[in-house]
User: Fold this.
Amino acid sequence: MTRIALLAFAIIFLACASTPAPATTTPSTAPAEQTARDVLADLPHERVEYHIQRFTGEKRAEFASYLTRKADYEEMIRAKLRRRGMPEDLVYLAMIESGFNPEARSLAEARGIWQLVSDTGRRYGLRIDDTLDERLDPEKSTDAALSYLSYLYNRFGSWYLAAAAYNTGENRVGRIMTETTGNETGTDADYYRIWDQLPGETRDFVPAMIAARRIGRAPAEYGFGR
Assistant:
């Protein structure tokens, strides 16, 4: 009996030793911010719904013209966003800034489809003088605008905060974030934490952009293009 028991033990031992260890799953090494960088979040908020109602109601004709002009620039802008690893839906930031009107001009003398002011345009390599204004060049102004947005995302850690800073000024958003949260860097949800401290136009800038994105992704569902 002892020999049989020892033999059985040896067989079990050898079987266990020869069984391969369970495969381990290697966790993703991609940092969280890299994943987030590719995505423009769609956070629910009453102001998003408000702008959907405006764009499909009293502003329907105006928004329809935005959608028509979008076709002239969308492919170029999305291609540039893809190459940079940025959310393609940032195309809707340009829609809200200018309605894709290359002749658009603001009271602050921002111009072009991205509504860049002259200082920002020059900061990102555009020629702006008495003979040439490259803010009116759709491709060159897109390159400058995306470089600026990429910088803003790296500074604030959020596309919502980057969009707010693009619209109202980076130092203003940095100051408000620091006073409210203790840090410039934040999340998309922090946009709504500082929402009531932003200028009126900027309060509605991100909700309008998200509303435009929802409609632009499925225009027929909202009665456009029928």
About this structure: Confidence is low (pLDDT under 50) at residues 1-35.
